[in-house]
Every structure is written in structure tokens, then in C-alpha cells.
Amino acid sequence: MAAKTYRFNRGRRQAAQRNADRIAAATPLNLPSLRSLEITVIVEHAHEPGFEGDAAVSYLVRTDRGGVLMDLGFGPEHPAFAHNAERLGLSMDDADALLISHLHLDHMGGMAAQRAREVAIPESFDRGTNQPCYVPDRCRAPTFDVRRVEGPMMVEGGLATTGPLARMLFFFGWLEEQALVARVEGKGLVVLTGCGHPTVEVILKMARKMSDEPLYALGGGLHFPITSSRLVRAGIQAQRVFGTGKAVWQQITDADLDVTIASLNAHKVQRLLLSAHDTCDHALKRLTEEVEGDVEILKAGASYSL
User: Model pTM greater than 0.70?
Assistant: First the structure.
């Protein structure tokens, strides 16, 4: 345990320095001014009637320039993705590319996918057309053209990625995560996260280096399982133990949430679209009450126009 703790603490320092270096090196991107942006939620913990909820994420982001599917939830391992996509009438025909925020089971298609570092998508959804698949770290994605992202860059649909941002996790080790960024005409920047492991503060620093437009909206996961976990395995509240970026004997607390709420208010975020897949009801309630912009909880089966 002492050796693991040493490696973890060293990794935390290295991740912080790597992110600082990446942000310092980032230069503005020529983000197009999008006339429309809509997020259709395929997988989320909260859900509309007739849709299945899951502690995972999949969003179809469509603009007037095209679309990107962000994440696959548990993919073929759980029924939610296939059921909800069919009910919505969606397939990869509705996207120009796939983007995986990070290589965790609830985003890249399940536990087998995570262990094999191979993206897994239900056959009923995949069209096998060799579309681009943007990933923040080394992995495979059969039937896709895998493109490992090294830094901020444009992707399909007039959207951009922050490029990989790092976090050291006690059990899972080094993690790279990317977020989507867009510029909506007359409003400002929209940032969409998977889990937000690198922290909102780091992600928004990178987004602001990519564009000097004001932050309009933030959506997706923030990873605040303060009082409970959506995923429980063998009696273990998995999200409170495995994905926090803290030592195993430490917990995410309200003090950590205070920092994020202050950051969101300092950025004057106008719309906050919260994922409940990795954030407990207590944290959702605080964010809803204390963030000064309009706050909604993302639901599978619903679409959100920005």
C-alpha cells in the first residue's frame, strides 16, 4: 500500500504539471459560429418515461454543420443504449463521427471494452462505415477509423475537443479525458464533459485558451458522488472509491463542491445541464440551488437545444 500511495501521489503531481503545460501551450482555435446545437441524450441515469436509465453516458450532439456521438454508455453489456437508441430512431447514420471522452466502462461500452481497451458499440447501432473515432488515449475501435487526439483540435460538426487532460486515480492509475467545445452564435461557448475527472476548473481553463468567447453552457458529468454512488458492486459504492482522484481513504466532500460552484459562478455560466450518472442527489440539489444560471438534469430520451 505504501508503494501504491507513493506512485499515486507522484502521478497526481505529474498530471497537474502535464495539464498546466498543455493549457499553457494551447492556442486559440477558429471555432465556427454555429447557428444551432442540440444534445439528444441516449444514455443517462435520469430518463424520460419509456426509456431506460443507466449510470453511464451517451450524447448525440447535432449542429447545423453535422453531428458527433459522444460516448457509448455500457454499450452492448447493458440494455439501455440499444433500447433508447432504437426508441429514438437513431444510428451512426445520424452522426459523422464518434468521440470517446475517456476509457472507462460507462463511456466506452462496458467492462470487457475497458479491459481490452477496445470500444464496443451495439451491432444494431453501428453501420460499419469506418467513421472517425476520436479517443484521448491508446485503444482500438473495430469498424471505425481511430484517431488518437493529442491536443485541442476541430472535429466534425463544427465542434472541437479540448484534447486529453489528465487525472491520476488511486486504483485505475493515469487517466486521459477530453471534452467537447462549441461556439454558438450570439451566446458563447458550450462545453460538454463525460465525467469531468480532470475537474471542471481544468477543463474550463483549456476551453478558455481555445476561445475568448464567454462561457454560455456546461453539460455532462462532474463526478460528485458525495453521499452515495450510482454504481454499487458487491456492496462497494464504486464511484465514491474508484474515480475520485483522491486516496482510497479520502472522500469527495462538500468543500470540493464549493470550489466547483464558485468556479461556475465566476465564469457566469448561463445554462448548466447536469449528468446524474456520477453525481449524487445531494450534490445535484446543491448545484441546482447555488449555481446562478439555469440548471437542468439531463434525461435519457430528451433533447436540449442550445
Answer: yes
